[in-house]
Amino acid sequence: MTIWRPVNSISVKALALIWRDDALLVTEVFNDLGQATGVRPLGGTVEFGEPWRDALQREFLEELGARITLSDKHFVMENLYEHQGTLGHEIVFLCPARFDETTFYQRNSFDFLESDESSETARWVTLEELSLRQLELYPAGLRQRLENLDNALRDKRLFS
User: Does position 57 have pLDDT exceeding 80, yes or no?
Assistant: First the structure.
């Protein structure tokens, strides 16, 4: 297990909101004891000079070997948080997306390596399951945003 701390600067992230029915594709976030404290959608850091849309597609190719189609709709959240006593600050682009190959929707989990070579697993999780397991959905406020938007971000018409 890798001990992770936020960097001492503002980072820019791009995350994909990929749904299978009512379940969102997420990966767990762990504390230093290896306990899951929450989950977040898949994606990653936007590199200097890289458009966030390119970064999101690159991350999925690198981590899952998957091509995704991004919606024209997206939203941005500022995420000020504390992880294990260290403050973090992110600007996060969140975009509804879908896998280009439908076979990815048949898988229940996805094992992949992060850029630091740590092993991760992504799974489909409903918002109800998160409540039952008492896990947060990161970035903070995303769950409320998704609940308020109801099914709008899952609407297939976003991709037409």
Answer: yes
